[in-house]
């Protein structure tokens, strides 16, 4: 393809200003990509991707011509070698687009070191937000979303894994984990042991894809449901925050104070009662006492 042909293939796509652009790519359904991400893919000077084959296929599906532009592989195993090339392109005043294999870059993704290197070198960083397995799983889980912790993949080694689960067990937020389908059954059993069998959770599999499946229940119920299953596909686990013991007045007071800074007494009581699984009357009485202190 000649330079003229390349210009024709990118006609209508705004040329991005110099800088590094992180774009979110579909986690399943190809049409979930944003129009802005397609514009950036069509107009950037240099493309980088965790998996260049995935990016090329995505561009073909959406009719975005590559032309003679370079596509640089950038992943965990070659980051140290690929970063200098991308940084040189930025120094030359070019626009560089980086796409993760699926979802939002830097979320369990090797793009973090590239972002840090570009920032340290003084180059502008931009993002075209879009698909995210974390947010998609939170949406369909039916669990609280006002405060959550993305804890990524649990460590594979037994000792480190146990310490990891103990550390996140008491975090007062909904937990989001990634896990291999081969280990999800084992992880559910470990979560039930470390976090409590009655803790509500959801196993989200193949989100936005043809065989999407969301299984909800307590950790004990999910452990039993997946004990004999051989599952395939991408897995996201969402686990409810720990409930407050009914005699833990400090925990309840802290939750109420946080809620009352943003909401009315009535709404704060409703939200805290649901989140901590406590009787509304008990929470209301605690809120009145708290209001009397302030």
UniProtKB/TrEMBL annotation:
EC number from the UniProt entry: 2.1.1.198
Reaction catalysis annotation: cytidine(1402) in 16S rRNA + S-adenosyl-L-methionine = 2'-O-methylcytidine(1402) in 16S rRNA + S-adenosyl-L-homocysteine + H(+)
Signal peptide (UniProt feature, chain positions): none
Pfam families attached to this UniProt entry: RsmI_C, TP_methylase
Presence of the UniProt keyword Methyltransferase in the record: yes
Location within or outside the cell: Cytoplasm
GO biological process assignments: methylation
RsmI HTH domain sequence ranges: 248-290
Function according to Swiss-Prot or TrEMBL: Catalyzes the 2'-O-methylation of the ribose of cytidine 1402 (C1402) in 16S rRNA.
Family recorded in the similarity comment: Belongs to the methyltransferase superfamily. RsmI family.
Stated name of the protein: Ribosomal RNA small subunit methyltransferase I
Annotated source species: Acidimangrovimonas pyrenivorans
Gene giving rise to this polypeptide: rsmI
